[in-house]
Structure formats: structure tokens, C-alpha cells
């Protein structure tokens, strides 16, 4: 893949998230509440563990898990790297690097981490890159380490673009995702099903400790989302738009 450019607006994402709910308590909470609580739990269970985040963006997840041991954040997009480097990098306990997981593993083939996080990354890259990232997760994990991987979820797997929900062939999606400098229809978005996500992590030599879902479409928005996605309200009303898995190396 050529040098990666993240073609999405973080401000637009914040506005977009208002369409979703956590379904915890009265349904007005942060749609990511269950996921973020899970990250905090994993960090609390391994306070001395070294943390690797693949695709750290602006450093949001590192801030959630900041009380663990040494931290390495990898961000291939130059602009987002500069922002997270400026706010988080101290060159000692926290290192933010402008590279991919594969290039980092090439330089540090023996490095292992007690915690590895990949948060909402693998749906925006070609399927071959997704598989490579998940293999890197496996290879970076210490023998007793835990990984947390979060991504999209829908009732069935679809390959789409952010600004155009027309269902694409996988090879068409891969070609578009592999040329981030010329993505004229927004970022590529692979909508995983639960089955396709778990199959991808298992084929990388990882086993599932716990699976969860988060960020449900608000009830008043279900009909609109179903039409927009080319699905049916009954198919998506109880399927969250995002999912995560706590993983470890398979025995």
C-alpha cells in the first residue's frame, strides 16, 4: 500500500456518532461506553504491561489506557501522527511513531507487548492489509498478552465507501482502499459481520476471550439507516454498528 492518508473528518465523526446510543442505562450515554470500559478493564488487569496501539490516530485510546507501562503508538497518516506526537510523545514512556505495524515489526522483530490495541482501523484498509495487521497483532503479543481489536459490524459483510453505500466487490474495494491519496468517495468502509470478523482474527492465530458490540442505531434512526445501507430495519435494529474482541494467542 502507498503512503497512507486518512481521508475523514474527526469533527464530522463526532456529529455522526450522535445517531447512536450505548443501550446502557437510559440509552443516552456514550455509544462507545461498553468498548471504552473494556479497554479500561484490560489496562487495569495488566498495569505493568507494555502497550502497543496500531493506528493510534490522535491518541484517544492511549489517553484512556495511559496508566499502563511503556506505550508505543503507531500512526501512518502524517497529519494525525504530528498531532499525537505533539501531545503525547515524550521519547521515554510514550513513543509515537509515523509507521505501520509491519514496518515497525521489521525493525523490532523480537519486541513483545502485554497489550495490543487496534481500534477502528482494519475496516478502512485493503483486505490483505487487514490480514497483515492481524498477523502483526499475533506476532507482537507476549505469551500471556491480550489484544483488543474493534471494528465495524452489520448484519452481513459489505464493502462500501463512506460517501457511497453501493455494495462493492471485494477486489474493487481493495483497489480503492489501496490508493488513499485518490479516494474521491470518502474513506473505504468494510462492514464486517460478526462471523467475518471472528473468522479474520482466528485465521491469524488468535483466539477469542470475549466478544462484544457497541454503538447501536437510535430507534428513531433505524428506518433511515436500513434504507441507506440497503438492508431492512428488522435486520439491523438489534445489531450494533461496531464490535470488538479481546484476543490472545491461540494455544
Gist of the model:
With 251 residues, the chain is of the alpha/beta class.
Report on the structure:
The chain has one domain: Rossmann fold (3-Layer(aba) Sandwich), CATH 3.40.50. The chain is α/β, with parallel strands linked by helices and 251 residues long. It has helices spanning 10-16, 33-45, 60-64, 78-88, 101-107, 127-140, 170-177, 194-203, 222-229, 233-236; strands at residues 20-21, 51-54, 71-74, 94-97, 113-119, 141-152, 158-161, 188-191, 206-214, 216-217, 242-249.
SSE arrangement, N to C = HEHEHEHEHEHEEHEHEEHHE
| Strand tally | 11
The general outline is globular
The helical percent reads: 25-40%
Question: What structural category do the secondary elements indicate?
Answer: alpha/beta
At CATH's second level, what is the architecture? 3-Layer(aba) Sandwich
Extract low-pLDDT stretches: none
- Strand composition percent: 15-25%
- Major sheet size, sense and barrel closure: 7 strands, mixed
Widest sheet: strand ordering: 4-3-2-5-6-11-9
Write down the overall mean pLDDT.
Answer: 94
Name the CATH superfamily classification: Vaccinia Virus protein VP39
What top-tier CATH class fits best? Answer: Alpha Beta
Give me the Rg, rounded.
17 Å
Q: Give the termini separation.
A: 32 Å
Instruction: Quickly count the helices.
Output: 10
Oligomeric state, counting identical vs distinct chains: single chain
Number of structural domains: 1
CATH fold-type name: Rossmann fold
